[in-house]
Amino acid sequence: MSFLGQSTDRYSSSPWRDPEDDTLRLECGVFGVFGVRDAAAIAALGLHALQHRGQEACGIAAFDGNRFHTERHMGHVGDAFTGADLVQRLPGALAIGHTRYSTAGGAGIRNVQPMFADLETGGVAIAHNGNLTNFLTLRERLVQEGAIFQSTSDSEVILHLIARSRKAKIVDRFVDAVSQIEGGYALVAITNKKMIGMRDPLGIRPLVLGDLDGKPVLASETCALDMIGARFVRDVEHGEMVVIEETGVTSTKPFQIKAARPCVFEYVYFARPDSVVNGRSVYGVRKRMGHNLAKETGVEADVVVPVPDSGVPAALGYAQESGLPFEMGIIRNHYVGRTFIQPTQGVRELGVRMKHSPNRAVLAGKRVVLIDDSIVRGTTSLKIVRMVREAGAEEVHLRSASPPIKWPDFYGIDMPEREQLLAANKSLEEMAKFLEVDSLGFLSVEGLYDALEAGPRDPAAPQFTDHYFTGDYPTRLTDREIAEGRNEANDKQLSLLVSA
């Protein structure tokens, strides 16, 4: 998605709200349900399960047979979509929902999804996860043709393309629209009579089809199906469009067939561990990552400690492979909301303790293997290492359950630019010194692919989207290519309006 106030060169990362926070964030989860009584309530439950995919805004659109009803809010799903009157506010048997993470300078409510438009064929509401790599190119063309934009979101570009299509049928208009977009995306939409799900030609962003008492459900992850008691049917395939009507579910593949390249970071970090993504248990993959990490980077130590929560499965695998005891040496505070404004360096240094607290009984006097899912800029890792040492650890050996992150992402992950990525700018020895650890180790790309049970990586046709580790981007970066050709600055303005 695109957000007001961030750099609009789509190939540089957005400025982060907190310069001390280097947590990766995935921009969005989507959910849809068809033909179910009180569909908005079901959608709200589904969004609860997808809250980890976007924690700063959420929205639901429902259709009652005559009118569309939408609500979009800043904040968590549990705060926004609650109360006995929810189904009165959002009546109908068709509903889609969205959770969103907004980057710095986000335009607030006008970029929150789902987005709605009245067309001559009827209304359409759409929610989308991912980023379009030709967003600026398309938006510039549409503005020149007279389109008026109310947001700076990729999703509104898709709506304009649908509206401007000369095709007669709404499904054909969707095909016409998505044939013009590039990048990684999964989208759900509802019209007067249909629910439509679409996944990009490489399947970079996930989307699954479920069944709730005979009624179809679409969701970013299987954990959302579990939340509402739905049965997993199958993954929506890469490049597939599913059209759901009263008569059933039909599938089309309107694009040239390509090999799938799903995002490997779904397994490393983003997906919930209880989800199954592209047929693979996320929990199982993460444990195997830990096993391979121990084989590749084993060290003499007394205890294996995860950085919770995302480091836990890999740490379990590492402990099992190494024969070292697994202990919760760091306790996570699950009741921390947004990080408060930290006015002084001294207070900022304490910020990590809001989220993580050392368990001194486990750490004191021990040689600790500290397992994290990934290392981005290293600022948070450094704070955690210092915290573990202050709790009495004799040695700290930091291990990353993913390979070194050296390249930014442009398909829906909020990631720093390359000059801010620790592994892109320092050697292993320099990183270890910066992080103040006794040793540092990363899972290899080969070890990651082995954990995914995908066979050796094929450099000519990689099985996954893994550019953050390899620099091998799966699609054209159209906007970046054009900007570089024009020698344009990265701060090209998207909008003159700044929302409070």
From TrEMBL:
Alphabetized UniProt keyword annotations: Glutamine amidotransferase, Glycosyltransferase, Magnesium, Metal-binding, Purine biosynthesis, Transferase
Catalytic reactions of this protein: 5-phospho-beta-D-ribosylamine + L-glutamate + diphosphate = 5-phospho-alpha-D-ribose 1-diphosphate + L-glutamine + H2O
Domain Glutamine amidotransferase type-2: 28-247
Entry keyword Magnesium: yes
Pathway, per record: Purine metabolism; IMP biosynthesis via de novo pathway; N(1)-(5-phospho-D-ribosyl)glycinamide from 5-phospho-alpha-D-ribose 1-diphosphate: step 1/2
Signal peptide segment: none
InterPro entries: GATase_2_dom, Ntn_hydrolases_N, PRTase-like, PRTase_dom, PurF, PurF_N
EC number annotated for this UniProt entry: 2.4.2.14
Protein task: Catalyzes the formation of phosphoribosylamine from phosphoribosylpyrophosphate (PRPP) and glutamine.
Protein name: Amidophosphoribosyltransferase
